[in-house]
Amino acid sequence: MPSPFFATIFLLVLFIGTFVSCTEGAPRAFFVFGDSLVDNGNNNYLLTSARADSPPYGIDYPTHRPTGRFSNGFNIPDLISQELGAEATLPYLDPELTGDKLLVGANFASAGIGILNDTGIQFANIIRISTQLQNFEQYQARVSALIGEEQTERLVNGALVLITLGGNDYVNNYFFTPVSARRLQYNLQDFSVYIISEYRKILMRLYDLGARRVLVTGSGPLGCVPSSLASRSVNGECAEEPQRASAIFNPLLVQMIQGLNQELGSDIFVAANAVEMQTNFITNPQAFGFVTSKIACCGQGPYNGIGICTASSNLCPNRDLYAFWDPFHPSERANKIIVQTLFTGSDKYMTPMNLSTIMAIDSL
Length: 364
Ligand SMILES: *[C@@H]1O[C@H](CO)[C@@H](O)[C@H](O)[C@H]1NC(C)=O
Ligand SMILES: *[C@@H]1O[C@H](CO)[C@@H](O)[C@H](O)[C@H]1NC(C)=O
Description:
Elements: H1 3-23, E1 30-34, H2 76-84, E2 105-107, H3 129-147, H4 149-157, E3 160-164, H5 167-174, H6 181-185, H7 188-208, E4 214-217, H8 226-232, H9 240-264, E5 269-272, H10 274-283, E6 298-299, E7 314-315, H11 332-344, E8 350-351, H12 355-362
Parallel strand pairs: 1-2, 1-3, 3-4, 4-5
Antiparallel strand pairs: 5-8, 6-7
Helix pairs in contact: 3-4, 7-9, 10-11
Bound molecules: 2-acetamido-2-deoxy-beta-D-glucopyranose (2 copies).
């Protein structure tokens, strides 16, 4: 009685064929790893204080409601998805991330984490980077069950990946207390060399998991965020020690990426120099249409830089006029400037090339 068997095979082929044809011509998949600069809402599902799930977060998002993004509106991954012509990636923990939606990609990021495992321990339950990578493995198993192993590998190899780490290793680790364990252990230079060597291992693991185009960013100008101005600056100038941290970290990151690509014999990794990108609008906010880069739109105390943004904080009426949304995170409009630079920036910002060039090469 072969007919039911063949009928099953036939249906199976039809089923797989439908999925495969659905993925052809679709935007490439997009995967996101890292901290609060890129978290799309995973922490909403966790017992942690590191969350952006209450107003006024999301006030300029299309729904005007908080989503878990640390922004008044779109964050950097959203704006990259838009450039790719794709839907925003869902948080990996979102129950809606099933079926066809898995083929868009996924966001594994979690606010508060860093390169090191002991970064952000005060936030309790957050998804550390090694677990984010395990979740990526689990994701691939789920997609394999849907479209098969070979198609899954193609989807992952063809994807764009974004990873953003490092800022919290300074803010929520090295600088967290005046006598942090890390500070006793390392000077700033040696600490930076150490976390870059750990970042390298994380990137190699991403490569082993199939990532072939990875945009790597580090910390912005840490001394210039409203939080640093409020707690460490004397006259409103960028705070010296965190600035020195960013100035050490970013060139080391670029160097490490160049070495890694050389070793792999291919431009797998692309470094974005977040300090160079943000220094322009921080030193000359008016040229970019901002009224200030020192005062956060939402917060309290000097520069609105003390504590976190909540419903009872000061809130500016027009978020587009502020470079910083809260004491730590850029506004949606600043994010747009950053993403524009990722796509079209010169080699001052992007090593070895910008995303427009990458998209052009990859579409050949
Ligand atoms: C962090 O923890 C993971 C999982 O336990 C481990 O594989 C990794 O080596 C740790 N990283 C550091 C820098 O200790
Ligand atoms: C991207 O980078 C290349 C090479 O540095 C540069 O020539 C080009 O103008 C940049 N912008 C775009 C949109 O490609």
